[in-house]
Amino acid sequence: MADVIRFLLQNFTVTLLVLGLVASTASLLRMPRPLTSRMIVSESIRQQLAPIR
C-alpha cells in the first residue's frame, strides 16, 4: 500500500486523475436518482476538467 501511495504522489498526472475520479464519485452520490449514463459521463468529464479552470 505504501508503494501505491508513493507512486501516486510522485506522478502528478495520475494524482489528478485519481482526485478527479474521487470528486466525480462524491458528486454523483449526491445527485438525485435515477442517474442516467449521460449524467454520469457529464459529471465525470466536468470533474476531470475542473483543475484546468
Verbal overview:
This protein is an all-alpha fold and 53 residues long. It has one domain (2-52). It is 77% helix and 0% strand. The chain is built from three helices and no strands. It has helices at 2-10, 12-30, 37-49. The protein is elongated, with a radius of gyration of 13 Å.
Number of helices: 3
Low confidence ranges: none
Radius of gyration: 13 Å
Form type: elongated
Structural class: mainly alpha
According to DSSP, the number of beta strands is: 0
Report the major sheet. Answer: none
The end-to-end span amounts to 32 Å
Helix content: over 70%
Number of domains: 1
Secondary-structure element pattern, one letter each = HHH
SS strand fraction: under 5%
Overall mean confidence score, pLDDT: 81
Topology:
Elements lengths: L1 H9 L1 H19 L6 H13 L4
Provide key terms for this protein.
53 residues; 3 helices; mainly alpha
Summarize the structure.
This protein is an all-alpha fold and 53 residues long. It has helices at residues 2-10, 12-30, 37-49. The chain is elongated, with a radius of gyration of 13 Å.
